Amino acid sequence: MADPVDDPTDELPSAAGNFANAYPDVWDAYSELGETASEAGPIDGETKRLLKLALAIGSQSEGAVHSHTRRGLEEGIDPETLKHAGVLAIPTIGFPKAMAGITWIEDITEQ
Predict the structure, then answer these.
(1) pLDDT tens-digit profile of 43-102?
(2) CATH 1.20.1290.10 segments of the chain
(3) Do 88 and 95 meet the contact criterion of CB atoms below 8 Å apart?
(4) What is the C-alpha separation between 54 and 64, in angstroms, rounded?
């Protein structure tokens, strides 16, 4: 397990952090898979973040939408660009689901 001072699980939401602490080997493998998938192709960083946000909206995962919105802001993505991912979801997943995604984005962008 990582040094507690530099423990990346400190910034995880409670459920994920608890899981990572309880099953560090599984969490490390999961994290490595994410990094490997991210590095597997030519898509730039901002586009990857927006794709992950769109996938989170489409799968109706409020926690993932919050996470990718938060990370997008930390990476310098404009809040309106993040919200646009929700707007683009309307014709594909429907207005109610897209609106849920937009409100989850706003939970973070309007703090």
Answers:
(1) 999 999 999 999 999 999 999 999 999 999 999 999 999 999 999 999 999 999 999 999
(2) 45-109
(3) no
(4) 10
In CATH terms, the fold of domain 45-109 is AhpD-like (1.20.1290)
Q: Looking at this protein, which amino acid is placed at residue 10? A: D
| CA distance readout (Å), 74 to 25, 28, 68, 89, 96 | 27, 22, 10, 23, 28
Residue 86 CB partners (closer than 8 Å, separation 6+) = 57, 98, 99, 101, 102, 105
Residue 82: what residue type? L
List the structure tokens of 84: 């646009």
Coil, strand or helix at 105: helix
Q: How many residues does the chain have?
A: 111
Task: Write down the pLDDT at residue 6.
Answer: 42
Q: For the chain, what percentages of helix, strand and coil (3-state, to nearest 5) are there?
A: 80, 0, 20
> pTM for the complete prediction?
0.83
